[in-house]
Amino acid sequence: MTQKVAVLGTGKIGEALLSGMIGAGWSPADLLVTARRQERADELRTRHGVTPVTNAEAAKTADTLILTVKPQDMGTLLDELAPHVPADRLVISGAAGVPTSFFEERLATGTPVVRVMTNTPALVDEAMSVISAGTHATAGHLAHAEEIFGAVGKTLRVPESQQDACTALSGSGPAYFFYLVEAMTDAGILLGLPRDKAHDLIVQSAIGAAKMLRDSGEHPVKLRENVTSPAGTTINAIRELESHGVRAALIAALEAARDRSRELASGTKD
Questions:
Q1: Which residues lie closer than 8 Å to 192 by C-beta, 6 or more apart?
Q2: Which among 35, 112, 147, 149 could bridge 41 via Cys, Cβ 3.0 to 4.6 Å?
Q3: How far apart are CA 158 and CA 10, in angstroms?
Q4: 150: Cα within 13 Å, side-chain hemisphere
Q5: Which of 106, 168, 161 is nearest to 132 (CA)?
Q6: 150: alpha, beta or left? (left if phi > 0; alpha if psi -120 to 50)
Q7: CA-wise closest residue to 90 among 145, 132, 35
Q8: pLDDT tens digit string along 231-248?
Q9: Please, what is the end-to-end C-alpha distance for the chain in angstroms?
């Protein structure tokens, strides 16, 4: 049986998801989209061959609804959707910090809800998407969510109680790496390198290091030790990082991100 999927509030991540699904074999005829502006809806139709609809039409027509609006807009969207969503629809939320109970309280009793935290590497099909089941979601619903988000990267199932930690580590994670590359590029310039050369050196080193972490099976400590020779350049750099409290600062930063995710879950909107 053909399954229709609707992406509601189709921004950059929603469009990346559409593109990935089409690349993975989904028919554009089975994909619906909603957008706040008509120009955006027309753009999605032209670019991907999908069908723009209203939020109410999506709720009535699609078998799966993927809600990709910002967390602070989710309550308004659910108020609009609730009268039109039958209890057999699968609702997938991509809103950081918003628990499945928030949806279950506003939709028909028994509506299956799956919470997904993905990240911006979905734009290049290298996302890490973390998936959790709500009260009424079955293993089949989780598998369906994995099939959808697997089109733009890897997926991982976790209990919903771990979502805030995953948001801090992975949802916000790409920004930490961009920040590190920015700082290292500035350091390269300070050491006398042109910006473009410093950038290329750092980015390729990051790609290589990431592949070694993924493919070697070695602990990161072991990989770091392989680069760290006695009295060499690397150990001197590591000593400076430790003396400036970089490790402690990273831990504190991730705790702050986790805490903000919890605030969003409790209804904080700014």
A1: none
A2: 35
A3: 25
A4: 11
A5: 161
A6: alpha
A7: 145
A8: 999 999 999 999 999 999
A9: 43
**Cβ atoms < 10 Å from Cβ of 177:** 12
Residues 6+ away with beta carbon under 8 Å from 150: 24, 129
Phi, psi angles (nearest 5°) of residue 52: -75, 140
Q: Checking phi first, is residue 128 left (phi over 0); if not, alpha (psi -120 to 50) or beta?
A: beta
Query: Considering only 98-112, 160-174, 238-252, 256-270, which range has the smallest mean pLDDT?
Result: 256-270
Q: Backbone dihedral region of 225: left (phi > 0), alpha (psi from -120 to 50 degrees) or beta?
A: alpha
Q: Give the residue carrying structure tokens 């602990």.
A: 219
Would you state the torsion angle of the CA atoms of residues 121, 75, 269, 15, taken in this order, to the nearest 10 degrees? 20
Q: What are phi and psi of 9, to 5 degrees?
A: 75, 55
Give the predicted TM-score (pTM) of the model. 0.91
- Residue 269 pLDDT greater than 90, yes or no: no
The single-letter code of the amino acid at 177 is: F
For residues 108 and 178, the answer to whether their CB atoms sit within 8 Å is no
Question: Tens of pLDDT along 45-55?
Answer: 999 999 999 99
What pLDDT sits at residue 267? 65
Q: Is the pLDDT of residue 270 over 70?
A: no
Q: What is the largest CA-CA distance in the chain?
A: 68
